[in-house]
Write a structure and sequence with these properties.
By secondary structure, this protein is mainly alpha-helical. It is built from 14 helices and two strands; from the N terminus they run ααααααααααααααββ. Strands 1-2 form a two-stranded antiparallel sheet. Strand 1 and strand 2 form a beta hairpin. Helix 6 runs antiparallel to helix 8. The two termini are 27 Å apart.
């Protein structure tokens, strides 16, 4: 297996893990506590990574970590859960599946990656495939839920692109950068959760097991793999791994909850998975991926090996 293929495979584990979130939330966690759930996903994981890496941001990375933490975690989690509570699961997944289109546009604006017809068609095919997998006939729409879903997709997409643009400081590993973002995002959610939802609910052993899985496997490990992938792959390649999440959720629903998978859902899986694979087939790269290092207070931009060559 090539180095790039191994990187893609490891990064793909993140959305695959996120596909289990709905099952764990509905089967193991207390109901109607989306902000508390977001808090329990982010803050314990971030603090653990801070304890393991023993590195804190320096200089401009204090505000950069806060911005990335807000986009990838602090705003994304509450908006995502709001959409999930206001919309049927299938509709929420379809709204979120427009993320690759947002990334294509933001990458053109912020990274100088000229959008290609192939990138646009692949993103549209991914969204269409996801819609076949999860959308049910007669699914209801809620304006607040749709707006929240679109904003959550935009927030995560912007976080992906800014993570690619800023890279990470010299001498700081991806694990530390993940810890900074999760901690910042969790601290953003903390006051909002207590203000809107009140004191934490009484927790059982089952609840604690569910939160432990979400915090450490589903968040700490998965976001480390995701941010590592953003650093080493193009932004569009990474975001087109996203359809693996609703595909995984559908498979878990079929295997664990007895939910039916008909011919339309299977065709949708093939289309979404095909779009995911197509999103990884980039032209041979002549440049290096965009990473930043800071020396003497000045930001130095370096192109590393996986920046796409646009024709």
């Amino acid at each position: 297996m090539s180095h790039k293929a191994a990187t893609i495979a490891l990064t793909a584990l993140a959305p695959i893990s996120w596909g289990s979130t709905y099952f764990v939330t509905t089967e193991f966690l207390p109901p109607d506590r989306p902000l508390f759930t977001g808090l329990m996903r982010a803050l314990p994981a971030g603090l653990l990574l801070l304890a393991l890496t023993r590195k804190l941001p320096q200089g401009a990375w204090w505000w950069k970590s806060a911005v990335l933490g807000a986009l990838n975690i602090g705003a994304f989690f509450p908006l995502l859960f709001l959409a999930a509570y206001r919309l049927p699961g299938g509709v929420a997944a379809v709204v979120a599946s427009v993320g690759p289109l947002f990334v294509v546009g933001l990458a053109a604006l912020l990274l100088g990656d000229k959008p290609t017809v192939r990138a646009l068609l692949t993103a549209i095919a991914a969204a269409f495939g996801v819609s076949l997998v999860v959308l049910k006939a007669g699914a209801a729409l809620d304006a607040v839920g749709v707006i929240a879903g679109l904003l959550s997709a935009l927030s995560m997409s912007a976080g992906t692109v800014f993570t690619k643009r800023w890279g990470r400081p010299e001498g700081v590993g991806a694990l530390a950068l993940t810890g900074w973002q999760l901690s910042a995002g969790g601290l953003i959610i903390l006051p909002v959760a207590f203000l809107l939802e009140g004191a934490p609910p009484a927790l059982t052993g089952t609840h604690l097991a569910g939160y432990a899985y979400l915090a450490f496997g589903n968040t700490a490990v998965s976001y480390f793999l995701w941010f590592r992938g953003i650093e080493r792959l193009s932004a569009s390649s990474v975001t087109l791994l996203g359809p693996l999440s609703p595909i995984t959720a559908a498979v878990i629903g079929w295997a664990a909850l007895g939910q039916a998978l008909g011919p339309v859902q299977l065709i949708g899986m093939v289309i979404a998975f095909g779009a995911t694979l197509a999103g990884q087939l980039t032209p041979p790269s002549k440049k290096q991926p965009f990473v930043n290092s800071e020396k003497n207070g000045q930001e130095v931009s370096m192109d590393l090996e996986d920046r796409e060559v646009r024709r």
